[in-house]
Automatic annotation (TrEMBL):
Domain of life: Bacteria
A UniProt-annotated Pfam family: DUF1256
Gene: yyaC
Keywords linked to the UniProt accession: Hydrolase, Protease
Any one GO molecular-function label of the UniProt entry: peptidase activity
Keyword Aminoacyl-tRNA synthetase on entry: no
UniProt name for this protein: Spore protease YyaC
InterPro entries in UniProt: Pept_HybD-like_dom_sf, YyaC
Single biological process term from Gene Ontology: proteolysis
Keyword Oxidoreductase appears in the UniProt entry: no
Amino acid sequence: MNLKNLFERKPDSYSVHYEEQQAASAFADHLLTLLPSPGSCPIVFTFIGTDRSTGDSLGPLIGTLLEEKNLGHFHTYGTLQNPVHAVNLVEKLSLIQKQHKNPFIVGADACLGRLKSVGNIQVGKGPVKPGAGVKKELPEVGDAHITGIVNVSGFMEFFVLQNTRLHLVMSMARVIAEGIAEASVRYSASAILQDLHQSDNGIQVNTKKQAIMQPNHLFKEDIES
């Protein structure tokens, strides 16, 4: 696996419709370009939302779908059972900072947008802004963001979120969860390759040291004899 290609920088923001072929893999490709190199810091996904609103359940649905998967180097917060939402957001962010040293946080949330953009999944640099669609003042979350446009903005946003089709939200959640799971496998594989590369370098360095030291040792014995 070519580590350079795996983490090759692409545009800061990327959008793919959940019905596109290979949407999950394309999502994973761009997500990986945003992440720091393996081993540099913990990677934490924070899925924001609540199951009390159909449109706002995207985040906890993703977290629940990922709950039983082995995500290797990725940590996740926010499920249907234990959601991260407006009421506990500050508390959960504080907990994440306590449990992980200098984490790289990816915030994920549902959002509203233009009619032609409904169904689009966006991933990019910078934080997600939870509550913006319904005019709530909440902390921004993340060094990178994932958003899914689940319905149309512009009029009675809270009502629109409440009446969003669950089928759409669930379909988008599956694509995002598949993309994160694929990114996890590739990220973990690159971490293993990086460790092997470092080990190989260490062996080469030790071999060179021995080669340098060995003639000196022999020369010393020759003098003593």
